[in-house]
C-alpha cells in the first residue's frame, strides 16, 4: 500500500476527456449527463413505485411529490397560480443541480456544478428567459423594474445604470454562490479523507483515526444538506426574479 500516492485535493476538479469521437465529452459533461438522466427517471416516475395495484407511493414517490409541492407553493405564493406552467422547468432544474451536487460526493467522481461556466450558464439562461417572459407580459413597461419609483429627474440615468448593474451582478451571484459552496465543501471532505488515508498508511491506531472518521461522516451528511439547500436557494431566487419581472 505504500506505493499509493496522495494527490492534491484539487485533483477532483481536473477536467479530463472521457469520449473523443468528433465531439469530446469530458468528465464534467459526463457527470452532468448522469444528473440529467436521474432527473429524467424521477420525472418519468420510475422511482415512484406507482402502478395500478398500488395506492400509496414508496419513499421515492413521497419525496418527489413533496419537493414538487414545495416548488409549486413557492410559485403560487410569490408569482401566482398563472405561472405554475413553469413548474416542470423549475422542478427539472432543481433536480439537475441537486444530483450534480450530490454526484461529486461519490469517490473518484467530479462535481459539474463547481465549474463556473456551468453555473453561470444556468443562471444567465434562466434570468434572461425570465426577462423575456417579463417583456412578453409588460412590453416596454418592463423597463420600470430598472427605475425605482420616486427617483428624481436628475438621477434617472444613474439609477437605471445601477439597477442594470445590479441585475447583472444577480446573475453572477447565482452562479458564484453555487460553485463556491460546492468547491469549499467537497474540498474539505477531500482534505479530511486524505488525512485519514495518510494516518492509515502510517499505521496510526484506529481509535485515533475514529475522530476524523466521525468528522468525515458528519461533513458528508452536511454536504448532502448543503447540496439540497443550494438547489433550493437557486430556484427560490429565480422565482423571486420572476416575480419582479411579471408583477403588474
UniProtKB/TrEMBL annotation:
Annotated protein name in UniProt: ATP synthase subunit a
Segments crossing the lipid bilayer: 28-47, 85-104, 116-136, 142-168, 180-200, 206-239
Originating organism: Rhizophydium sp. 136
Localization annotation: Mitochondrion inner membrane
Organism lineage string: Eukaryota, Fungi, Fungi incertae sedis, Chytridiomycota, Chytridiomycota incertae sedis
Record-linked Pfam families: ATP-synt_A
InterPro entries: ATP_synth_F0_asu, ATP_synth_F0_asu_bact/mt, F0_ATP_A_sf
Keywords: ATP synthesis, CF(0), Hydrogen ion transport, Hydrolase, Ion transport, Membrane, Mitochondrion, Transmembrane, Transmembrane helix, Transport
Gene Ontology molecular function, alphabetical: hydrolase activity; proton-transporting ATP synthase activity, rotational mechanism
Annotated membrane topology: Multi-pass membrane protein
Family, as annotated: Belongs to the ATPase A chain family.
NCBIfam families per record: ATP_synt_6_or_A (TIGR01131)
GO cellular component, one term: proton-transporting ATP synthase complex
Top-level taxon of origin: Eukaryota
Gene3D superfamilies linked to this entry: ATP synthase, F0 complex, subunit A (1.20.120.220)
Main location class: mitochondrion
Family annotation (SUPFAM superfamilies): F1F0 ATP synthase subunit A
Gene: atp6
